[in-house]
Design brief:
The protein is mainly alpha-helical and 486 residues long. The chain has a domain of 208 residues. The chain is 74% helix and 3% strand. It has 20 helices and 2 strands. A hairpin with a 2-residue loop joins strand 1 and strand 2. Helix 1 packs antiparallel against helix 2, helix 2 runs antiparallel to helix 3 and helix 14 runs antiparallel to helix 19. The mean pLDDT is 93.
Length: 486
Amino acid sequence: MSPGLLIVLALLLPTIAILFIVLSKRRPNLREAFTLLFASVLFVVVCTMVPRVIDGDRPSIVLGEVMSGLIIAFEVEPLGMLFALIASSLWIVSTVYSIGYMRGNSEPRQTPFYVCFAMSIGSTMGIAFAGNLFTLFLFYEVLTLSTYPLVAHKGNDEARAGGRTYLGVLLFTSVVFLLPALVVTYSITGTLEFQPGGIIDADNGPVLIGMLSVLFIYGIGKAAIMPAHKWLPAAMVAPAPVSALLHAVAVVKAGVFSVVKVIVYIFGIDVFGIFSSTDWVSYVAGFTVLAASIIALGQDNLKRRLAYSTVSQLAYVVLAAAMATPLAIMGAALHIVSHAFGKITLFFAAGSIYTAAHKTEICQLNGIGWRMPITMSAFAIGAFSMIGLPPTVGFLGKWYILSAAITANDYLVLFVIFSSTLLNTAYFVPIVYSAFMRAEDVIPEHDHGEAPWPVVLALSFTASASLVLFFFPDVPLTLAKQLAWG
């Protein structure tokens, strides 16, 4: 099969899945079987492209020209390959989890849930393989619109309010910042293509490049850099599988992926790194890392603590990318991987606790580790990965970011990483300690155990992956090196 056909197939499979999901809506087992089938086929298609990209090939295809200079085109490069691997593999796991969660909690509108989930994965594939800024922008907006119904899934006043905040912030940042960034970029370069080394010339000067950095960083609202982060905690009204999708599989990953891609392929790390007018990105990202971690410390609701943790962890990626050195770019790419598997494990665990014990607050979790040992052991692994402790994959991204900071004598980054690691420890370790080392305050009304087996299976897989990827990081490591050094 030709490389171009593989790209088209990866883009079409989620859309075809939607048709089969809708046709089988009256037969839940068949509906979910179709979802798993198409998710698995997509993963195989994506994996088929990996050896070609590692060997230096860059599969590409042009689907058409909307108007002069606005081309819908796709190209598979190392960062996009890495993102596609994450999204396609976690679609399978998230579907298994969703089967247990949605049925275990008797959630309404399950067919629309699976339809929107597939649509969001399709738009994620478009973002991952986008060959230019225009194509990325189109699929970026489709992702926002396709995930809105998932955020507002419960249909109550709280869900609708959360959905409005989600949609409002992301559309506002796109229209007010990102769209003008595309216009300015095209006007000064005559192209929107992603190119190694970037397309923006240093001759444009520090003022214009600094202005563009503001438009791009805040235009990519899904990266949740403060103060454009409020959509993320607001979206926690959604069911746990949606939270996992937002935080680990698609939405926030699309944000930090786009930031890294713009810095590497639009600015170019040499241009981005030479002007002091872009230094503000490091300061704002560093502030976001620490401020979000401090806010997380004060949250008793488990999902809200995890949400602010995500804001902080995303800012690690932006902070690393803003350093604009090959080693830092490598660390940014690896942190995208580690955050995906670590954070999805944590949200899976939160949903498991809610399904089995109907508990949502951290103060309610004393002793729950003895009733739900698999769930809380997985939670511990995910937490340790977010802290950056070996032998979890979270250690790898932090190691390369710290190495880059030491090499560049960047004391700001060193201070932020060390301080935030202490804060991460402060808001994660007490949860694990209380779950296993404290006695239950109140005996539950019903003697519960673990959540339904699909839920436990999914979170066990992602927790195990966080360990396995520490020992066998060859594929993400190779792709990250290719991104950083070409």
